[in-house]
Amino acid sequence: MDCASNPSAPSAPWDRVLQRLREEIGEEKFTSWFARMDLDALTSDVVRLSVPTRFLKSWIQENYLPRIADIWAEESGARRRVDLAVRNAFARPVALKASAPREVVSERTERPVETKPAPRASEARGEVRETGGDVASGSPLDPRLTFESFVVGKSNSLAFAAARKVAETPAGAAPVYNPLYLHAAVGLGKTHLLQAVARAGAAHGRRTTYLTAERFMYGFVSALKSHSAIAFKDTLRTIDTLVIDDLQFLKGNNLQQEFCHTLNALLDGGRQVVLAADCLPGELEHLDERVRSRLAGGLVVDLAPLEEDLRLQILKSRYQTLAEQHQGFAVPAPVLEFLARSVGQSGRDLDGALNKLLAFNQLTGEPVTLDMAENAVKDLIRPTDPKRVRVDDILRVVAKHYNVSRADLLSQRRTATVVKPRQIAMYLAKTLTLRSLPEIGRRFGGRDHTTVLHAVRKIDGLVATDRALADEIEVLKRLALES
């Protein structure tokens, strides 16, 4: 039976599949990889999905298609084959996003697996064309992300100063702080600084390219397919400043090898490299040890969580911009102070709070007051800030407690003396940090997120029935928090 005969049937299980994916991998990665994936058709034995680019199709097939099939079977009660295709660039979308109730309509049951759009249409959408040289144009830059619009405070002043120094180095001068490596949690300003570096570098006469890890991977794969890999390599290695964002997403042995060669060629050639990730270089365990060592050999700077004064400065800056765009939108100073004190951990949280106030104000006509703000952003109020626990702290505490080595916990050994501590360490990483399951898996020797999920569920179940183990884990939690 095709889904056209019963259009409402697949909506609920598909929404639940997407929600579970979001919970397992985290909001940022879900938005990067799955926000543009649609359910196109459903038959008695096949779930037909589509994505807009071949790169997304290849990455999801390699990393998540079996998991999607498993979740579908669990949520729908029936196991079906999951097919993933690339949407025709000129076809009308046939499914709404998972965030809204939708009617799934099957306008076509078969499509070419790969459809190559005309170059002009591809350029109009801002997508990467299929030549290795195009990667030199870089990923799109947001015109709002400049040094002038970056709000500086104690938590990010060193990163800001280092990024600006790098960007303003004149063309032909020797690079400084090479490589410059920025790391922070989501929403603390890494991308803002990297794009500011790219924009300012070009203004100072430097040939600068800004790339997300996804764009780098897609450019390399496209170059291999089009037999232009040499041009791809030569293009990257002749620029003055290479800026790469979200380095934690760089996966695949061939891609890592090419990145290693490119990094070495640029550094040895006296060219500037600027990178950002969500963790320290040593924690990028999917990268070769030599690459991690080279990254750590430059200037490594952390962007710490935003302090309250800085959050207030950011709110004032963003509010001023919104007030200029929306006449009559007024937020009293006490409300901004309340948001700075109570909302979120990042600049994106603050943006979300202001946007909620704007929506309430415009849709209801209610003026922004403290009472209105407390009601409007109640779902964004953060709990008392927990101490930031690192996975390295957890590994050290667990290894010492169970008299095993850190290497044992990250190894493939399956002996009982290692498996149980490893599962407990994964459980603690999930409960004490904000890292997603795939990120935890990477930190534990490159394991799959399903392995981490199994460990978390197993320990969670044992804690409910084994009082001694529950007490033991509480001790480990305290030790990790105190470390």
From TrEMBL:
Disordered as annotated region, ranges: 102-140
Zinc found in the keyword field: no
Chromosomal replication initiator DnaA C-terminal domain location: 390-459
Taxonomic lineage from the root: Bacteria, Pseudomonadati, Pseudomonadota, Alphaproteobacteria, Hyphomicrobiales
Superkingdom of the organism of origin: Bacteria
Oligomer status and interactors: Oligomerizes as a right-handed, spiral filament on DNA at oriC.
Record keywords: ATP-binding, Cytoplasm, DNA replication, DNA-binding, Lipid-binding, Nucleotide-binding
Sequence similarity: Belongs to the DnaA family.
Region Domain I, interacts with DnaA modulators, annotated ranges: 1-115
Residue stretches of biased makeup (Basic and acidic residues): 104-114, 122-132
Residues that bind ATP: G187, G189, K190, T191
Localization of this protein: Cytoplasm
Protein's gene: dnaA
Comment on protein domains: Domain I is involved in oligomerization and binding regulators, domain II is flexibile and of varying length in different bacteria, domain III forms the AAA+ region, while domain IV binds dsDNA.
UniProt key word Zinc: no
Cross-referenced Pfam families: Bac_DnaA, Bac_DnaA_C, DnaA_N
Designated name of the protein: Chromosomal replication initiator protein DnaA
Main location group: cytoplasm
